[in-house]
């Protein structure tokens, strides 16, 4: 038995992952096992009947295991594990394929390093909030993230994520000085600066809400909508019939938020517009996250010259839960 074709390393499990093989024997029933190569756990099986050669797409089995895991709370800068990549091998007739690492993101594998964000590098957040920066790098590359704060008691921290592949780091002003008014994040690859992001650290307006969504690489993006236009409260009263007549049985209620962005350059508005294609969204209060559902199915940017703004509506993902 031999594998005649397997996917290349760092391919996205959100697209087909095709394994082809030749049993080099008479036609017979074959069991295909998809295995997590780190834990040796079988994550999927498929029986193929009366085959000598065959092809199987393992991507649906892999996707079933790779549920995004956002951090429950962020209080310091550092690498965060989001369950965005997995080591896999396939076993057929007792023969195992080479181990491959697959990722959520689809990237240009001709590039040894890539920043996985579509937002502009000039950003704003409050001192108790965080941002998540995602990137792709081959594991033999040395990536260093340097975070420098400005303001009273400014500090500098640096760390080097070691895993390679699709990685994510959290950035926050917490623990970086008494009164931080700005952050500069420099990402270095093999000692060379390849990206820089700058943050204004300032208090939010009372109606501001920070939203997290997934971009086209299925990497988290964070943005603070400075205005909350209003809260819509809907209530549905349920009734039941009894021998004494119709009476109230329960009251279901839910609330919705309309969030309005700041006036932003066209490129930033386009990045925010991609919220509509996100599979998951969260509201952030300080360093904690709350799942929400997006109610907006289209956006029409309000333009003013080269600047624009958009509105989105969200509701708590869990019924009856109020939004912050």
- Main β-sheet, spatial strand arrangement: 19-18-23-24-27-21-20
Percentage of residues in strands: over 45%
User: Helix proportion of residues, in percent?
Assistant: under 10%
What is the number of beta strands? 27
The H/E string reads EEEEEHEEEEEEEEEEEEEEEEEHEEEEE
**Cα distance, first to last residue?**
58 Å
Largest sheet: 7 strands, antiparallel
Helix tally equals 2
**What's the rounded overall pLDDT mean?**
87
* Alpha carbon gyration radius: 24 Å
Unreliable residue stretches: 232-240, 247-253
Helix/strand-derived class?
mainly beta
Globular, elongated, flat, extended or rod-shaped: what is the shape? globular
């Amino acid at each position: 038995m031999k594998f005649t074709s397997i996917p290349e390393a760092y391919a996205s499990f959100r697209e087909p992952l095709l394994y082809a093989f030749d049993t080099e024997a008479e036609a017979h029933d074959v069991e295909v096992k998809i295995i997590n190569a780190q834990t040796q756990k079988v994550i999927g099986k498929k029986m193929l009947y009366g085959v000598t050669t065959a092809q199987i797409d393992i991507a649906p089995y892999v996707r079933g295991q790779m549920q995004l895991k956002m951090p429950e709370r962020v209080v310091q800068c550092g690498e965060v594990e989001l369950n965005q990549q997995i080591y896999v091998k396939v076993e057929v007739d007792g023969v195992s394929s080479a181990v491959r690492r697959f990722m959520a993101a689809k990237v240009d594998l001709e590039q040894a390093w890539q920043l996985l964000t579509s937002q502009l590098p000039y950003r704003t957040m409050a001192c108790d909030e965080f941002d998540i920066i995602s990137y792709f790098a081959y594991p033999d590359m040395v990536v260093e993230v340097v975070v420098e704060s400005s303001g009273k008691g400014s500090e500098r921290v640096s760390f080097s994520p070691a895993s390679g592949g699709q990685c994510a780091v959290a950035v926050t002003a917490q623990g970086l000085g008494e009164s931080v008014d700005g952050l500069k994040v420099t990402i270095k690859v093999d000692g060379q600066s390849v990206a820089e992001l700058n943050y204004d650290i300032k208090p939010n307006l009372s109606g501001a809400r920070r939203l997290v969504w997934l971009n086209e690489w299925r990497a988290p993006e964070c943005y603070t909508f400075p205005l909350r236009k209003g809260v819509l409260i809907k209530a549905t009263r349920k009734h039941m019939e009894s021998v004494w007549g119709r009476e109230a049985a329960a009251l279901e209620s839910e609330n919705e938020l309309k969030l309005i962005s700041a006036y932003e350059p066209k490129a930033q508005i386009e990045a925010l517009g991609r919220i509509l294609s996100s599979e998951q969204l969260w509201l952030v209060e300080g360093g904690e996250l709350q799942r929400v559902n997006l109610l907006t199915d289209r956006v029409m940017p309000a333009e003013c010259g080269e600047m624009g703004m958009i509105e989105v509506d969200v509701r708590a993902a869990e019924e009856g839960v109020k939004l912050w």
